[in-house]
Amino acid sequence: MVMLSQQAVRNVIGLIGNVISFGLFLSPVPTFVQIIKKKAVEQFSPIPYLATLLNCMMWFLYGLPIVHPHSILVVTINGIGLVIESAYLTIFFIYATREGRLKVLKILAGELAFMTVVVVAVLLAAHTHEKRSLIVGILCIIFGTCMYASPLAVMVRPHWKHCKVRASVIAALCLMAYPRICHGRLTRSGPALRVPMDNHGAIAQSLAQIVTTIAAGFYFICYIGQERRHSDHAAMCHRRIGKKLVIQTKSVEYMPFTLSLASFLNGACWTTYSCLPFDINLFIPNGLGALFGFLQLILYACYFKSTPKKVAKAEVELHSARNV
């Protein structure tokens, strides 16, 4: 009986993850076919695609040999994601209004400027794979989490878009402070303050979990606060994040089964990949993605029978790529 090595198993799981992620990247194709036919973007938002583009850029950087060696599968799928998301945004830009185009250009310019700063800072300030992986990995955790959360902007409608902006600001402040905190903990001189290299992973894990929890908690608080101000019925203020429309209407019109299933499988696959060997930077965002996908499947099972048949063909913009 042939025994596969851990690396071989990891490569197989990574290849499966690439296939599933590729399918997720292609999931919005019907939406853009509709946009091309109507020659208008209507109410579709570019935010999920911009979020996924930034996420792909961060993970592409993370997987490069100069940052985190032996991660070629992370580079390949996110390189493909960059091309696909760029195509989506090009189509959106062509058919959007002048205001919509300006919005896309502003956000895209901000993302490119941010990536330039990150690349320069990482290459000049961090001179080991450990430190580069630490800094870029934390940014990947934050943006990966935001990417999984970005479809909520569509699911809960515009009520909390201003909250999302505030949450993004808080997340940005966290990610700006976090590498500095880690750098200070890892490099301060003095016998009593020197941290051994073996402890880098433990420190990174602890702080990463804290930052991610704070960011996610802030999203929850913002949403609940907005719901209390905008809801016509106080009794509905306990609705769960991202599932308000499903629970309120008892319909899965806004939750396509195939996309929810693919999101769950994608998150589960890359979570498994992150355990061979354990990589906290891959584990956290993809673990959350698997959890979100699983919760969506539960809701789908609960409300599938109560969904009117006439909405079976409804198209919804819920793009959550899992990439890594």
From TrEMBL:
<keyword id="KW-0812">Transmembrane</keyword>
<feature type="transmembrane region" description="Helical">
    <location>
        <begin position="12"/>
        <end position="35"/>
    </location>
</feature>
<protein>
    <recommendedName>
        <fullName>Bidirectional sugar transporter SWEET</fullName>
    </recommendedName>
</protein>
<comment type="function">
    <text>Mediates both low-affinity uptake and efflux of sugar across the membrane.</text>
</comment>
<feature type="transmembrane region" description="Helical">
    <location>
        <begin position="47"/>
        <end position="66"/>
    </location>
</feature>
<keyword id="KW-0472">Membrane</keyword>
<dbReference type="InterPro" id="IPR004316">
    <property type="entry name" value="SWEET_rpt"/>
</dbReference>
<feature type="transmembrane region" description="Helical">
    <location>
        <begin position="107"/>
        <end position="128"/>
    </location>
</feature>
<dbReference type="GO" id="GO:0005886">
    <property type="term" value="C:plasma membrane"/>
</dbReference>
<dbReference type="Pfam" id="PF03083">
    <property type="entry name" value="MtN3_slv"/>
</dbReference>
<comment type="similarity">
    <text>Belongs to the SWEET sugar transporter family.</text>
</comment>
<feature type="transmembrane region" description="Helical">
    <location>
        <begin position="254"/>
        <end position="274"/>
    </location>
</feature>
<keyword id="KW-0813">Transport</keyword>
<dbReference type="InterPro" id="IPR047664">
    <property type="entry name" value="SWEET"/>
</dbReference>
<keyword id="KW-1133">Transmembrane helix</keyword>
<feature type="transmembrane region" description="Helical">
    <location>
        <begin position="134"/>
        <end position="156"/>
    </location>
</feature>
<keyword id="KW-1003">Cell membrane</keyword>
<keyword id="KW-0762">Sugar transport</keyword>
<keyword id="KW-0677">Repeat</keyword>
<feature type="transmembrane region" description="Helical">
    <location>
        <begin position="72"/>
        <end position="95"/>
    </location>
</feature>
<dbReference type="GO" id="GO:0051119">
    <property type="term" value="F:sugar transmembrane transporter activity"/>
</dbReference>
<comment type="function">
    <text>Mediates both low-affinity uptake and efflux of sugar across the plasma membrane.</text>
</comment>
<feature type="transmembrane region" description="Helical">
    <location>
        <begin position="280"/>
        <end position="303"/>
    </location>
</feature>
<feature type="transmembrane region" description="Helical">
    <location>
        <begin position="201"/>
        <end position="224"/>
    </location>
</feature>
<comment type="subunit">
    <text>Forms homooligomers and/or heterooligomers.</text>
</comment>
